[in-house]
Amino acid sequence: MNLVFRIVFAILFGLLGLLAGRWLSLILHWPVGAGSPSAFARFVGLPILGTLVGVAASPALLRAFERLVKTIEDAIAKRNPAEALSGAIGLIVGLVLAFLVRDIFNTFVLLPHFGPAISFVLYALITLFFGYVGVRVGLRQRLNWWAKGTMQSGEVAAKLLDTSVIIDGRILEIVQAGFLDGRLLVPKFVLKELQAIADSADPVKRSRGRRGLEILNKLREASKGLEITDHDTPERDVDGKLVTLGRQLGAQVLTNDYNLNRVARVQGVSVLNINELANALKPVVLPGEEMSVNIIKDGKEQNQGVAYLDDGTMIVVENGRRSIGEEVDVLVTSVLQTAAGRMIFAKLKR
């Protein structure tokens, strides 16, 4: 196939060079006589030279053409089918509109000297304008009714990752375990916020930002569906952009931010909260159960001691202060579920 393209490009640009040389031979005003060397150079040499230049330039022009095609192919491959279809339909509509208004520019042909050239340039510009606007509008609208239809027919919703869930890092283990289906989308405004944190003067923030970028690189390796998307919205804050983008794309927002979780759900956007998943996976503890814990510090109330399970669940032990640093047997008295997690209250076993 590559050889065929080389031959076709060589023929096409050789013909263009021939025509260019012929055109130059006609417009140049050389005072030459019939049969003179100057006449031969003008009417034969220039067309031949133009042909050779066109053929010689064809490989470079073919490489430029291949790069352009690859760029377009990569851009289309990053879009899901709904977006690609929407952009194509938008382009067709834009080109049809440009064709319908072409008669407006016919009047410029009547201008002296450069009328036809002005008419052609203006029509080319308006065609580019309508085509570009059509593609942008098509991608923004994404044929929402069609996209929703595909979602209802079984397509897995994409997941929008926010900054907090990337820095947290647990998303990497969840992806590696195969518990997340569908595309993982990281908007460029989230990536920009992550880079700003990584460049912060605060060493703690800088460390968190760099950890987030490292997690993102590992996610790209672990998940073939991870995409950096340039979708954006008019909102100024990142949380507002994520909620609006989730609503536009029909995507789920993946986060561990409690406030973002509430705001998104109020606006009807589906949310996957990593903290809620972690709480759901914690072992169930019921009042009356016995366990052995290591009390490590005193609690807020008098004589209370505090211990932790392996998953980080806090256990508040009544009268456990005197046993700090010891491993003791306790009896669970109650379990409190809060927005921040689960707390277990217990007393020393007699």
Compact description:
With 350 residues, the protein is of the alpha/beta class. Helix content is 56%, strand content 15%. The chain is built from 12 helices and 11 strands.
Task: Provide a descriptive summary of the structure in words.
The chain has helices at 2-27, 37-77, 81-100, 115-141, 144-152, 163-168, 170-176, 188-198, 203-222, 238-249, 258-266, 274-281, and strands spanning 159-161, 184-187, 226-229, 252-255, 271-273, 290-294, 297-298, 305-308, 314-318, 327-338, 341-348. The protein is of the alpha/beta class and 350 residues long. The chain has 4 domains: 1-76, no CATH class; 78-155, no CATH class; 164-280, Rossmann fold (3-Layer(aba) Sandwich); 282-348, Nucleic acid-binding proteins (OB fold (Dihydrolipoamide Acetyltransferase, E2P)). The strands form 2 sheets. Strands 6-10-11-9-8-7 form a 6-stranded mixed β-sheet. It has a 5-stranded parallel β-sheet with strand order 3-2-1-4-5. β8 and β9 (314-318) form a beta hairpin. 23% of the residues are buried. The model is unreliable at 143-154 (pLDDT under 50).
Core attributes:
about 350 residues, alpha/beta, Rossmann fold, 4 domains, five-stranded parallel beta sheet, 12 helices, 11 strands, elongated
List the helices and strands and how they pair.
Blueprint: H1 2-27, H2 37-77, H3 81-100, H4 115-141, H5 144-152, E1 159-161, H6 163-168, H7 170-176, E2 184-187, H8 188-198, H9 203-222, E3 226-229, H10 238-249, E4 252-255, H11 258-266, E5 271-273, H12 274-281, E6 290-294, E7 297-298, E8 305-308, E9 314-318, E10 327-338, E11 341-348
Parallel strand pairs: 1-2, 1-4, 2-3, 4-5, 9-11
Antiparallel strand pairs: 6-10, 7-8, 8-9, 10-11
